[in-house]
Design brief:
This protein is α+β, with helices and mostly antiparallel strands. About 25% of the residues lie in helices and about 35% in strands.
Length: about 120
């Protein structure tokens, strides 16, 4: 992927720092990071182990995120995914998300990410 994913820079120390402002949610084979923003709950680093895909893990995490967003009185969930990850786009659409923006990483003159939003 170009640019390379930031997940490779996600060390234990980076997670500890991020946990000051975000919530880290995990199953044994899936995880996500929830960060409250002004008008949404941002869902980052949603990941499911390849061996566990197709078993409803992403759906379960999204359900938890929706519950958490409502508890925080946020009207939506927002996430971003890379342009190249078309399977992710289909999954998020099937879960009720709608594309709301396309953005480019610094130094790129073309979109590299798609923003998806789920209104609650």
């Amino acid at each position: 992927m170009d640019p390379p994913s930031s997940v490779h820079r996600l060390t234990l120390e980076a997670l500890k720092t991020q946990a000051r402002d975000a919530e880290l949610w995990a199953l044994p084979d899936a995880c996500m990071i929830l960060t409250p923003k002004d008008d949404t709950l941002y869902l980052g680093k949603l990941a499911v182990d390849a061996d566990a895909r197709g078993q409803g893990r992403a759906r379960l995490l999204i359900t938890w995120a929706k519950t958490r967003a409502r508890a925080l009185q946020k009207p939506s969930l927002t996430l971003e995914t890379r342009i190249e990850l078309t399977e992710n786009h289909a999954t998020f659409r099937a879960l009720g998300f709608r594309e709301t923006a396309r953005t480019a990483h610094p130094g790129f003159d073309r979109p590299t990410s798609i923003t998806f939003t789920l209104l609650l």
